[in-house]
Amino acid sequence: MALVGQEPRLFAGTIKENICFGLRDILKNYRSYI
């Protein structure tokens, strides 16, 4: 069993940066992933 908070966690930055959080090289080469 786990507790999941109801508050969304977003970071200061663009929507793209929030979606890509944790992916190291996608911010540099994101067009190759699309």
Automatic annotation (TrEMBL):
InterPro entries: P-loop_NTPase. This is ABC transporter domain-containing protein. It comes from Heterorhabditis bacteriophora.
